[in-house]
Specification:
Layout lengths: L2 H4 L2 E12 L5 E25 L3 E13 L11 E4 L2 E10 L6 E9 L2
Antiparallel strand pairs: 1-2, 1-4, 2-3, 3-6, 4-5, 5-6
Length: 110
């Protein structure tokens, strides 16, 4: 199956942008950089116990994108897909197919 037919999810990429806040200090905000296509597959999950008899689900997903889609990919970026936020944990180039990058993300439940 070709890569173009597998990239069936349109995601929004958010990254940091520097700005000067009301106090005149250097700060940053997140803003939408672009929309790209990706293949999203769940890659694992776990339940973590918290204080006060609570549990937290940590759900991981793998995003596959074209290597030229995001020129300056970094760990401080995140993706939005269907109103859900996915924070980037780490990413690797695909060594077999050089035209794509595998990005491992955590689903943020709010």
């Amino acid at each position: 199956m070709s890569l173009s037919s597998r990239l069936n999810c349109r995601i929004d990429v958010y990254g940091k942008k520097d700005y000067i806040n009301a106090l005149g200090e250097d700060d940053y905000i997140y803003e939408k950089l672009k929309s790209i296509y990706a293949e999203i597959t769940p890659s694992g999950g776990s339940l973590l116990s918290g204080e006060g008899n609570t549990t937290h689900a940590d759900i991981s997903h793998k995003f596959v994108i074209r290597s030229n889609s995001i020129s300056n990919l970094s760990n401080d970026m995140y993706f939005i897909f269907k109103a859900q936020r996915y924070d980037i944990k780490y990413f690797n180039p695909n060594y077999k197919y050089r035209d794509r990058i595998e990005i491992f993300c955590s689903l943020i439940m709010e």
